[in-house]
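Training component of the fellowship. As part of building independent skills, the fellow (R.M.) carried out the full modelling exercise for a liganded target. The chosen ligand was adenosine-5'-diphosphate. The inputs are recorded below so that the supervisory panel can assess the work.
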Amino acid sequence: MKKNNAQRILMVTSECFPLIKTGGLADVAGALPLALKAAGAETRVFLPGFPDVMKATAGAKRICKLGTIAGGPAQLLSYVSKAGLDVIILDAPELFDISGNPYLDEKSQDRADNHLRYAIFARLAADIALGKLIDWQADVVHCHDWQAGLTPAYLKAETGTAPKTIFTIHNLAFQGLFPKDIFNGLGLPDCYFAADGVEYWDQVSYMKSGIMFSDWITTVSPTYASEIQTDEGGMGFGGLLASRGHTLSGIINGIDTDIWNPETDPVCVKGYSSKKLSDKAVTKKALQQKQGLRAAPKAPVFCVISRLTTQKGLDLLAGAVDHIVHLGGQLIVLGSGDKTIEDAFLAAAKRHPTEVSVTIGYDEQLAHMLQAGSDANFIPSRFEPCGLTQLCALRYGTLPIVGRVGGLSDTIIDTNAAAMQAGVATGVQFFPINQTTLAHAIDQTFDLYAAPRIWNKIIRNGMKQDVSWAAPAAEYLKLYKSV
Ligand code: ADP
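Fellow's submitted model of the complex:
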C-alpha cells in the first residue's frame, strides 16, 4: 500500500553492488536507489538470487511463495542492506543457482538457457510492478539492459493500467539475442514477433524489446546517447534508436563517494585529500612493494582496472607497454577478459618484471589500492557508454588517460591548450583510438608528469569534480515524474 506521496520505483537489474557485480551496471544499481531514496523516492531493487546474492542476504524474509518455476520451488525474498538498499530477490535455484559468471558458461559462451532465465525474471518483475505478487506496486519500472528488456513488453501487453517503464542501456554491445523459436515460450502476444516488436533479423532480441516497448530510453551519457543513434555506434540499432530520439536521453552515472573516498579508504596507508596530496605517495610506495615493482617514487605509475577487451582498447595498450617502460614508467594491470590480451600483458610483465605487474582476475580491494596508489589510469576505450573507472580516478587524484568517446568525453576535460589556459583540465584524451594516438597521449602524460605544479593542478581539478550520484539522481527523479 502506498503510505505517502513518494514515487515508487522498481529497479529491475541482474547485478547490484555489493551483492553481485561483473561491471558498472552493478555499481549503478547499488548506488542509484540509495541516492533516489535520499531524494525522497521509494525504491526497490528486483534481483536474481545468484549464489553470491543468496550468501550475502542470508536471513532474508520470504514475502511471496511462487510455486514451481523451471521445475523447482521458487519464492520472493525481501532484504534490506545496512546501507538501506531495499531488495526483492527471486530465489529460484533451478534458474539461478549457477556458479561463475551470471551470463557466460565455463567456456565463456552465453549460457544456453539465458533466454528462459531472464524471461522469467522479467515476467515476475512485471507482476511485482503491477502489485500481483506482493503488497506493493510501482509507479515507474526502471529496467536495466537486455536482462530486464522483456519487462516493458510484458507491461505494454497488459490491458489495464500499467506502470510506466524506463529502459536504460548500459552497453549496446550486449543485445540478448536468441533463436526465434524461443518466442512462443515467452507468453507475449503473437504480433510482438515483428519488426516493430522483439524480432531482430529473424531472431528475438531482449535489448530490442526494451527499446521498442519502454516509455522512455536512457543511456549513461549524453555523448553515448548521440553515438548510438548512428550507424557506426548503433551496433545494428542505430536507425531504430534514432527513430526514438525524442524519447531517448543520456544521464551520466555517478559513483558512491562514501565507498570511493581517499580520505577514509582503508587501502590508503595514509588518507589524503586535494589539500594533502603528498600523502598519496605513501600508498604509491606500498603499492609498488605489494606488486613487486622497483621502489621508484619518481617513476609515474600507470594502472588499468578493467575487463581486458578490445572494447576497452586494451589490445592497444598491451602494444604500448614497452614504450611506457622505455620512458621510465611502471604499469599495473588488474582485470580479465580476452585471452590474447591477457597473454600480451603477462608477456610484458615477464619482459619487465620490476616495472610491470599483471593480476588476472577480479579484486575489489586491489582496484581501490590501484586508484589510490597510481599516478594515472588508462581507459583507452574504443567505445564507452559512461565508464566509472575514470570517475573513481578523478576522485583519487589519479590522472585519467581516456579515449575521447561516449561518457569519457563527457566526464574528462582534456589538457588541450584552451583548457590549460583556463586552468580547467582534468585528464588526457585522445582520438581517434589507435596505436599512434595512444602513444602520443602517453608522451603527453610523461611531459605533464615532469612538471609537478601543472600535474598537481590537473589532478586537483579532477578531485574537485562532483562525481556523486546527487545530480544524476535528481535527473532520474525528474524523468520518472515526466513519464
Ligand atoms: P564496464 O564496461 O566493465 O561496466 P565501467 O567502467 O562502467 O566498465 O565499470 C567497471 C567497474 O568494475 C568499475 O567499478 C571498476 O572499478 C570495476 N572493475 C573492473 N574490472 C575490475 C577488476 N578486475 N577488479 C575489480 N574491479 C574491477
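The panel noted the following from the submitted structure. Residues 114-129 form the longest helix (16 residues). The pocket of adenosine-5'-diphosphate is lined by residues 23-24, 27, 171, 305-307, 334-335, 362-364, 367, 386-389 (CB under 6 Å).
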